[in-house]
Design goal:
By secondary structure, this protein is α/β, with parallel strands linked by helices. The protein folds into 2 domains: about 150 residues, P-loop containing nucleotide triphosphate hydrolases (Rossmann fold, 3-Layer(aba) Sandwich); about 70 residues, no CATH class. The chain is about 30% helix and about 30% strand. It is built from 10 helices and 13 strands. The strands form 3 sheets. The protein has a 6-stranded mixed β-sheet, with helices on both faces. The protein is globular and about 50 Å long. The C terminus is likely disordered. The protein binds adenosine-5'-triphosphate.
Length: about 280
């Protein structure tokens, strides 16, 4: 088992003094898809930022493919697929330009694309089924198409570790299935896929591993032993009312993919179904 990402006792404190993660530890091997699960504000994005070196760890350490974060950044091996809200969609930029950004780390100082860079962009767009959209403005695309373009950027970068922040928000079932298939292919190529998702129903279906966060890492490991009723109740701070997992049940009907967590004050807290998520 080759180690992909290892967090050892990581604490992250923002400049305003807020500590978003305390003593968080986990490890995930290469060649896996790992779900990052937790309520809003649990620290998922913070963990991503720490892995990308955007925020320093106030304590502990993170290694990526055996390297410190700084070195991993230098080698351009960590790719990021952002949440839609993080992107300024009014910025006038073509689809091919967004994907070309994935090549920047492979280019020289002047960032002049070579034929190999153009080829990588073409191949990445084809792989996500967006070849025909190459010359479109990014702002003119649908939510699902935009996700595909950012996945193409990660592919063009040839990231060995790919962080995806809620890739299923606002995408239809067909696009979700296409994204899951792509993630599986990338896993089989030995990459590390870390996926933050609120779409709990699909976690057991496609994530080999799960990391549960709530201001720290509550639990991590293989999904069968980690994505349990007890751990989910801990992560969501409520009572799990409807929890159907595993095997053929998952595919029998739409209902069986639904997970409902009822919060302590009896309001449905998390209600997710096949295509949904909120
Ligand atoms: N730049 C920042 N400065 C200070 N505090 C921050 C900053 N970014 C996030 N936080 C705080 O850190 C905590 C964790 O936020 P984070 O964005 O990591 O949560 P999350 O799990 O990604 O949530 P969501 O599911 O809503 O995306 C929250 O309490 C948040 O308010």
């Amino acid at each position: 088992m080759t180690l992909g990402i290892v967090a050892d006792d990581v604490t992250v404190t923002y400049r305003n003094g807020h500590t978003a993660l305390r003593h968080a530890s986990f490890d995930i091997p290469t060649g896996t898809i790992t779900a990052l699960v937790g309520v809003n504000g649990a620290g998922k994005s913070t963990l991503f930022k720490a892995i990308m070196g955007f925020v320093p760890a106030a304590g502990g350490s993170i290694s990526v493919l055996g390297m410190p974060v700084k070195e991993a950044l230098r080698q351009n091996i960590v790719a990021y697929v952002p949440q839609s809200e993080e992107v300024d969609w009014t910025f006038p930029v073509l689809v091919e330009d967004v994907v070309m950004m994935g090549r920047y780390g492979h280019m020289g100082f002047l960032r002049r694309p070579k034929q190999a860079d153009q080829d990588a962009v073409t191949a990445a767009l084809a792989r996500v089924g967006m070849a025909n959209f190459r010359h479109r403005q990014i702002g003119e695309l649908s939510g699902g198409q935009r996700k595909r373009v950012f996945l193409a950027r990660a592919l063009a970068q040839d990231g060995k570790v790919i962080l995806l922040d809620e890739p299923f928000t606002g995408v239809d079932v067909q696009t979700e299935d296409a994204i899951i298939q792509l993630l599986r292919d990338m896993r089989d190529e030995g990459r590390v896929m870390l996926v933050s998702t609120h779409n709990l129903g699909s976690v057991p279906e496609f994530c080999d591993r799960t990391v549960l966060v709530k201001e720290t890492v509550l639990a991590f490991g293989p999904t069968e032993t980690t994505f349990t009723r007890e751990n989910l109740e801990l992560a969501f701070g409520g009572v799990l009312r409807h929890f159907v997992l595993g095997g053929s049940d998952l595919h029998d009907d739409d209902d069986s993919r639904q997970i409902t967590v009822i919060s302590d004050d009896e309001r449905p807290f998390v209600v997710y179904d096949e295509g949904g998520g909120n």
